Amino acid sequence: MAGAAPKRPATIHQVASLAGVSHTTVSRYLQDKDSLKPKTRVKVEFAIKTLDYRPNLVARSMRTRKTNRLAIVLAAGPYFPGRLLAAAFETAHKAGYQVEVVSIEGGPKVRADRIDDLAESGQVEGILAISSIGRTGRRSRRVPIVESDIYDDHLRGKGELANAAEVRAIIQHLSELGHRTFLHVAGAQTHTSARNRKSVYLQTIEELGLRSFGVLGGDDWSAQSGYDAITSLPDDCGVTAVVAGNDGVALGVVRGALARGWQVPRDLSVFGWDDEEFGRFSSPSLSTVAIDREARGRYAIHHLLAEIQGDPLPEPPSRDINRLIFRESTAPPPTAQ
């Protein structure tokens, strides 16, 4: 028996009919849904989901001579900005664009040359560079180019992503709980973020008149480095609070404390960084710093789309992308309990 004929994809006119609006309203929704009244937006969203409507980007590009494609160029490295890219993809897709990610080995000059090739190819309508290309965002002869410049040549965060101001807030919070002797287990010092956190830690300890037993680690971001740092401390070190380079290091600190018979947070408070999912479900759950990388991804795409469409540039996110989260791994020190 012959198989059933494949179901034909829904059209924009069918969506409009089901939603009770004109097809131009549906088109407006696809371009900028926030421009519609909330009630209209809900009706169009319902119709699109009910009919499983997908815009025909090929047909649209033939009508408008546009590709509806963007390129994101980044350095090839051992790290991958997954959360930022996921938010960028989602933002671009909602605006009707497909995204191609181009990972390039070599420095800024190599990336700049590849970007020039892409710009002249006619394959994309705009290019976002999230690793430095040694020049500010500009409009090429063919397409807009926006440089976010928040990762280095090894995809290590810099600029806003390396801001360490929250280290001061962490130490202030712990000192208000009663802690007086601290330890910093640092992340890999090849990272700007790790160097900044170490620097702010040392400055804050001195400014607040607190005691630091020192800075340990600094070679990598591993849980093993946290474990080794804590288990190497003398019994009379007096440390009651640890500021760790990230959540992985912090988890190693917690395990090392348990290995020597210390309870967290009864005997030792531990603060991490990154708000990794495992830290939310560890026992105890980790106090940490959440980094809203998604906000940077969304903003970068909105900036690029504004360049493409000739619209005013969007305002950067209004708040710091870092946010302190207090969980079970921090409490007053034993002498204050």
Keywords:
337 residues; alpha/beta; Rossmann fold; 5-stranded mixed β-sheet; 4-stranded parallel β-sheet; 12 helices; elongated
Commentary on this structure:
This protein is an alpha/beta fold and 337 residues long. It has three domains: 12-54, no CATH class; 64-159 and 294-319, Response regulator (Rossmann fold, 3-Layer(aba) Sandwich); 160-291 and 323-336, Rossmann fold. The chain is 41% helix and 17% strand. The chain contains twelve helices and eleven strands. It has helices at residues 12-19, 23-32, 38-51, 57-64, 82-94, 108-121, 166-177, 192-207, 223-231, 247-259, 277-281, 293-309, and strands at residues 69-75, 98-104, 126-131, 138-139, 144-151, 181-186, 211-217, 241-244, 269-271, 288-291, 322-325. A five-stranded mixed sheet has the order 2-1-3-5-4, sandwiched between helices. Helix 1 (12-19) packs across helix 2 and helix 5 (82-94) packs parallel to helix 12. It is elongated, with a radius of gyration of 25 Å. The termini are far apart. Mean pLDDT is 87; it is low at 61-65 and 136-140.
Q: What count of structural domains?
A: 3
CATH superfamily of the largest domain: Response regulator
Question: Which of globular, elongated, flat, extended, rod-shaped describes the shape?
Answer: elongated
Strand order of the largest sheet: 2-1-3-5-4
User: Can you tell me the residue ranges where pLDDT is under 50 for at least 5 consecutive residues?
Assistant: 61-65, 136-140
**SS field, number of helical segments:** 12
List the helices and strands in order. HHHHEHEHEEEHEHEHEHEHEHE
What is the strand content? 15-25%
Major sheet: 5 strands, mixed
**What would the average pLDDT be, to the nearest integer?**
87
